[in-house]
Amino acid sequence: MSRVVLVTGGAGYVGSNACKALADAGYLPVTYDSLAMGHEWAVRWGPLERGDIRDEARLGDVMRRHRPEAVLHFAASAYVGESVVHPAEYYSNNIAGSLNLLNMMRREHVDRIVFSSTCAVYGAPEAMPISEGTPTDPINPYGATKRMVERMLADFGHAYGIRSMSLRYFNAAGADPSLEVGEDHDPETHLIPIVLDVAAGTRPFVTVYGTDHPTPDGTCVRDYTHVSDLASAHVLALERLSESGARPAINLGTGNGVSVAEVIESARAVTGRPIATVAGPRRPGDPPTLVADARLAARELGWRPAHPSIEAIISTAWAWHQARSVGTAQRRRAAAV
Ligand code: UDP
Fold first, then answer.
1. What mean pLDDT comes out for the span 44-54?
2. DSSP state at residue 244
3. Report field, pTM of the whole predicted structure over 0.70
4. Is 13 known to be catalytic?
5. What number does CATH give the domain 3-171+226-252?
6. Residue 334 pLDDT grade (very low, low, confident, very high; cuts 50, 70, 90)
7. Under 8 Å between Cβ of 232 and 21
8. Higher-confidence residue: 336 or 281?
9. Is the CB of 283 under 6 A from ligand 1?
10. What pLDDT, on the 0 to 100 scale, is given for residue 336?
11. 313 pLDDT exceeds 80?
12. Which pLDDT value is given to residue 131?
């Protein structure tokens, strides 16, 4: 019998890729997802249990029926801008939801959890690259909720023996190279899918949020990390937790800083299409540069990104973008018949 892992948010972008990585490693991922943001089509490697992480009765029932040995916890509200406008939803879903999940784990004797955290816990540090020793000082409710859950995990570790590892991702990007799952947000706010919409002709231009940042070309610099690499790190983290106690939070990034202008230039090269840009004002709350010091992930987990270059990331994202457009057109045609 396969070893069962409960994946909250397993129908989402990173969560569904993690389900694939779990299945490849011989686990059975059981997805627990409200489908508020996730997609039923992205659940392909194990059963889907529809539910909200704040729903104690439902979560308890799912845990008792599937008896997972561990949890990968992705379910969360995850738009930085929205978190500023609607913090109540972020504190409720991310903090109260995680607390409920941890309490149900205690009750059902599940003692390992890998948590989907974020570089947003660091806020806007000046010194680059960002190591795990950089003080955490989130500048928006999203980052604050993730930092609070990290703290909750540490406290639950000391008091109740729940072993956890928090993985702080930098910018998740790209798509599963075999195109089984990929990014599909509504609304889409992320740079690479927007740039590819422009390449595909479904948006007229991309607005560059700020060309006067204190960076080499004036546009923001980020550390884009392939979603399949993030996914494989979760399996490594799970296995590390099986053989040890709680581990410190770990950055997941490539260590390569890429500017918005460089992303657009690379997307032009990958797609062979023109991509129109409009210079816009800075987006509130955007730190100019976020780049990981990812050495701890290599040391702790033996993690080495398989797709570190921005070209590889954009190539897989473009292949997925095109495959998805064909799929959408087919679904529309089928619906019209
Ligand atoms: N960005 C941009 N135009 C867009 C979307 C994003 O210039 O239409 C910039 C944004 O300011 C940031 C970078 O692209 O510097 C990455 O943004 P994204 O929303 O993809 O990820 P974030 O860094 O906010 O998590």
1. 98
2. S
3. yes
4. no
5. 3.40.50.720
6. low
7. yes
8. 281
9. yes
10. 57
11. yes
12. 97
Q: Which two tokens stand for residue 228?
A: 């399949």
For tokens 């500017």, name the residue.
259
Sequence ranges of the chain with CATH classification 3.90.25.10: 191-222+255-290+307-336
Q: What tens digit of pLDDT does each residue of 23-45 get?
A: 999 999 999 999 999 999 999 99
Q: What is the pLDDT of residue 133?
A: 96
Q: How far apart are CA 103 and CA 124, in angstroms?
A: 32
Ligand 1 contact, 171 CB (< 6 A): yes
**DSSP conformation letters of 133-195:** TSPP--SSHHHHHHHHHHHHHHHHHHHH--EEEEEEE-EEE---TTSSS----SS---HHHHH
Cβ of 189 less than 6 Å from ligand 1: yes
Q: pLDDT tens for residues 242-256? A: 887 767 899 999 999
Query: How far is ligand 1, taken at its centre, from the CA of residue 173, in Å?
Result: 12
Identified catalytic residue from 13, 27, 142, 169 = 142
Closest to 223 measured CA to CA, from 334, 120, 325: 120
Q: 181 CB contacts (<8 Å, ≥6 apart)?
A: 13, 16, 17, 20, 42, 44, 175
Cα separation, 149 vs 117, whole angstroms:
9
Superfamily of domain 191-222+255-290+307-336: UDP-galactose 4-epimerase, domain 1 (3.90.25.10)
> Residue of the nearest CA to atom 12 in ligand 1?
220
Q: Is 220 in the pocket of ligand 1 (CB under 6 A)?
A: yes
Side chain identity, residue 9: G
Q: How far apart are CA 153 and CA 105, in angstroms?
A: 12
Closest atom of ligand 1 relative to the 280 alpha carbon: 7
Q: Is the CB of 78 under 6 A from ligand 1?
A: no
